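Changelog-adjacent note: as of this version, every example in the card shows the full chain rather than a window. The one below runs 217 residues end to end.
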Amino acid sequence: MSLSEIQKRIAQAEEKAGRPGGTVELIAVSKVQPNDRVEAVLEQGYRCFGENRVQEAAGKWPAFREHFDDISLHLIGPLQTNKARQAMDLCQAIHSVDRPKLAKTLARLAQERGACPDLFVQVNTGEEEQKAGIMPEEADRFVAECRALDLPVVGLMCIPPVDEEPSLHFALLAKIAERNDLQGLSMGMSGDFEQAIALGATHIRVGSAIFGEREKT
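Full-length structure tokens:
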């Protein structure tokens, strides 16, 4: 597949869902992709990318930004509090705000910096022990806590369990977002983004379908 094919499928999914074209932002997930593949997508004019780890992003994107303007970088993986400052310096959005300690750290740093990336609260819709994210029943309270800290929470994010119907999780996330008056829904990946768009996704995360399969390390 390719970037243009994914963009065409997004446009078709938007139309099928009765949504205006261009309402869904594609995050090209460049984690563990070789730099030449990422550069090839940049050369096509694409500018919105996602990384899982702050350390990898820090080793990759400052150099790209010297040659390409207007790059929008999204952190979509877990964020340790000791990496929060670096993440805020590198990224335009953080999709994995998942606990009070991290929210307080981000709020303190935002005050120091006078600016903060857009933030998404990660919700563990499958209530999986091994997965990060706020439990669904705690989401309303946590969103309120983040707002009380003056954090710019723009939406919610989820990663459905691999063995469950993703639409159930997308619908749950959309319901939580609606009752908290949040517009952003970061949900949907290579195998299920059309379903996510049908249920209101504003940001989808696609990697190997754009860049090719990750190289074995």
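Structural remarks: The two ends are 22 Å apart (CA to CA).
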